[in-house]
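worker-03 picked up job from queue 'complexes'. Input manifest follows; two sequence lines, order preserved.
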Amino acid sequence: MSEPLHRQLGLRDDEHERIVTTLGRDPTRTELAMYSVMWSEHCSYKSSKIHLRTLPTEGPSVLVGPGQDAGAVDVGDGIAAVFKMESHSHPSAIEPYQGAATGVGGIVRDIISMGARPVALLDPLMFGPLTEARNRWLLEGVVAGIGGYGNCIGVPTVGGEIRFAAPHSSNPCVNVMCVGIARAEDLVTTTSLTPRVGSLMVLYGATTGRDGIGGVSVLASATLEEGAADSRPSVQIGDPFAEKLLIEASLELIAADLLEGLQDLGGAGLSCALSESASRAGMGARVDLDAVPLREPAMAPFEILTSESQERMLAIVHPSKLDAVRAVCDRWGLETAVVAELTDDGELEIVHGGEVVARVPARSLAEDGPEYDRPAITPAPPEGEDPTFLPFDGDVTTALFDLLGSPNVAGKRWAFEQYDQLVLGNTIEGPGSDAAVIRVDGTMKGLAVSVDGKGRFGRLDPYLGAMHAVAEASRNVAASGARPLAITNCLNFGNPERPEVMGQFQAAIRGMRDACTALGTPVTGGNVSFYNESGGSAIDPTPVIGMLGLLEDHRLRVPSAFPRGGLAVYLLGETFAELGGSEFAEVVLGATGGRPPELDLARERALLDLLHAAAGETLLRSAHDCGDGGLAVALAEAALGEGHGFAVTLPGDLPEHLALFSESASRVVASVEPADEERLAALAAAHGVPCARLGETGGTRATIDGLVDVGVDELTATWELAIPRLLGEAV
Amino acid sequence: MSDRAPRIGVVTFPGSLDDRDARRAAATMGGDPIALWHADPDLRGAEAVILPGGFSYGDYLRAGAIAARAPIMAEVVAFAERGGPVLGICNGFQILCEAGLLPGALIRNRSLRFICREVSLRVETAQTAVTAGLTPGETVRIPMKHGEGQWVATADQLARVEGEGLVAFRYSSPDGIVDEAHNPNGATNNIAGVRNAAGNVVGLMPHPEHAVDPDVGPTGGQALFASLLQAALAGAAA
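worker-03 finished. Artifact:
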C-alpha cells in the first residue's frame, strides 16, 4: 500500500490530526494540498517561530517590523526604506538560472506589496569549491539568472558577496535582498489599509500554470537527496518583462489610492495569498477558481491553488474602484480577474465548477499552523587543530598572494559585471566595496547596505558566528560613513529535525539577539532557510545579515580604497592572536579547528560610533573593514582599489603572521590627511578606540615592515584573475 | 544661443528601464523632459526624441523588434525624416536599427554575457546631433550595460558606414587607441555608435544618461546631452 496522501504532501501524522480537529472532518484533497503548502516549514516557520520571537524588533527608526511582507525604517523627511532578504537555494540547486531568477522576482514583489519602489538588489551567494565542474555550472547559472532577471526589471544590483565552502557543493545558498523606497504615509500594511466585507480580490499579472507546484513543500522544506533533479518541475519559470510591468502597474494603483490591500503571490501561490489576505483582514472569502486565468486547461483545483507561477499579485479592491484598477492594468498590458469576494465569516470557501472544493477557516491556514519547540543539543565544537597556536615558518608574501587569490577574498568583478548596477541613476557605490551606497532619489540622503555572513565562524561557534555577522555588517555600513539602522536576515541552516542543527539555530538566534541589542540595530524581518543538507551532512550554520544604514548627506560617504598618495594610514581597533576560522587558517595552514575571534560588543559599538562621527567631520579619506585575511588583505584591498601603494610598519609585538593575518573583530584600516592626524587621534581617544599609525600611502608598491615589498599591480593581478582562472577563462 | 529649455521627448515602451534616467539627464543638462508613451502616436511637441535603454516588450522576439513597430514609432520616423534630432541609447539603438533608421544590427556580446562596465569612446565625427560639441579623436567616459551590443553589418553596409563616415563612436582606450583590448563586446571595428547620413539620428550602446551627474558616475555624457539640446533648439529655429 502506498503512503497516505498527507505524507506524500509532506504533512506529518499529527499535523493531519490537527487538520481533522480544526475542520471536524477529514479534509478534501484540495484542502489537504492547501494545508500542506501553508504548513510547510518554508511558509509557516513552524520550527523557528518561537525562537524568532526573542529577537529585538523595536527601535526609534522602525516603521514596520517582522510579520509583514518586508520591514521598513524611517530615513527622515517622511521617507521609508523598505527591505527584506530571502533564500531561493533549493530551486537554484536544481535549476540555477531559473532558481536564482525567480528568487529575485519574489523578493521584488515583497517590496512592491509594501507599496515601495524597488531600488536596489544585493545577492549573498555560497557555493562549493570551483575545482568541481558542477559548482562552476551552479555559479555561472546563478549569476546569469540574477542578471537575466534583475537587469530586465530596472532595479540595479548594487552588492552581494560570493563565498565558497565544501559543504555548499551539494547545497549552494542563494539569498537575495531587495531595498525599496516609499513615502512613509503610502506604506501598504495591514494597519494602513482597511478592507471591507464585499470588497473584491483581484488577481493581476501573469496567468496560472502548472509550474512550481509544491515548491515550498516538496523542494524548500526537505533535504536535497539523490534524484533531486526530478523535482525540476517544482522550479518556477520567471518572466522579468511581466515583473517590470507588475512593478509599474502596482505602484500606479497605490499612488492613485485604488487599493484596500495588496499581496504578492510567492511560495504556496494562491493558497497563501488568499488565506493571508483574508486572515489579515480578519475576514473570510468566497473564491471562484473558475475565474483564475489559466495557462493550460483542465488544471485541478489543488494545482490552481498551489501553483507558484511567477509575476502575479492579488489586490483587494472596493467594487467602486474596480474599473479604475482595470484601466491601470490594461494600460500596462496586464490581465485582471476578480477571483474572490471578502466575507465576514472567516471561512475561505473555494468553488470550482460549481462545487465547493474547500471550506476552511482562513486563519487556520495562514496563522494557526503548528509551532514546534524542537529538541536541541549544544553542538560539540568541531575537531581540528587550533591554527592560532600552530607554528608558521612560511613566507608571508607568498601567504598574502595565496589569500588574495583565494576565491573568498578574490575580486568578484566576473560576477558583478553581469549585473546592471546603474539603472535608476542613484548608485553611488556599487558592488565590491564595504557597503553599497545608493542615493535616495530626489534627496541628498544615502542608504548604505551590506550583506554579510561567514559560515566558517558559525561552524566553530554558531553564537559567536551570528554576532560576527551582525558586527561585520554594521562595520561595513559604518566604514562607508553611515549610521547602521536595522537589519533583515536570511538564516541558512540544515535540517531542524536534527537536534544538533536546532542547537546551532538557537545559538545563532541568541548571537543575533545580543549583537543587535548591543549595536542598536533591530531586526525588521527576514527568512529562515532550513534543510540545507544532503546525505546527512549540513551546511555550516550561516546567518546572513542585511544591514541598512543612513547617510544624512551622501557626500559624506567614505570610500574603501586609498584615494591618493600622501595620506596617513591608521589601524582603528586592536589585533589579537586569533586565527580560528580565518582565511589564513583555511588556505595557508589547512587548520580547521579553534574558536572564532572574540567579539566585544561594547568595543564594536565604540568603533561604529567613531566611524560615523569621523565621517560626519569629513575626517576620513578612506575606511576599510579588516575581514577575511586580516590586516594584510585589508591593506592590499585598500591599495588595489585605486592603485595607490603604501608603506607601513606593524603595531604591537605579535608574531608577524598573526599581526598580518589574524581576523580579530572591530578593526578598520583608515586613511587621513596628514593635517588631520591629531584630530583623528583625539576623536579615537574620546571614543575609547585604539588608534595606531601604520604609515603612509603613496607610490606603486605595497611595503610592510620589510616583510612584504611588492607591486600593487601584482596584487591586483592576483586578486582580479583568480575567479576567471578558476572558471577556465583566463590564463 | 537661447536660454529656453528645449522639449526633450523620452519614449517609454513597456519594458523601458532607463527612461526616467534619460528624462533626469535631460533636465540636469537644462532641457524640459517630456514623457512619451509607446501607444500614443503623438510626440507632444518634442524638439528632440530619445529612445531609452531597457528591454522593450521583453526583447522577446529580437531586441528592439517589436518596439520598432509601436504606434509612436511612425511619428518618430516621420520626425527623423524631417531632420528632427533622435538619440537611441542601448535598447533605443537596437530599435532604431530595427526601424531601419540606422544601419547594422546588434547581436549578443562576444562573451555571451551581459557586461556592465565603464568604457572610453572615441568620437569619430562632429557631424551629428550629439557630437556637434565634441572634436573627432577626443574620448568620453561613459558606462555601458548590455547583453546584446555587438554591432554587426553586412559587408556592403560596413563599407558604406566606414566609407561615408557614419561611425559616431568607437570603443577605445582612455587616450583614444582603438584595438581589440578595448573592444568589450566584439563589435565590428569597435563600433559603439553610428549615425544616419544626415547626422540627426544617432544610436549608441553605452549610456550617456548615466554619465551626467558626478555624484553617481563619470561625466562623459554631458557633452552629448549638451549637443542634443542645442540641436533641439536649432531644429526648432530652422
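worker-03 released lock.
The first strand of chain A starts at residue 62 and ends at 64.
The mean pLDDT of chain A is 95.
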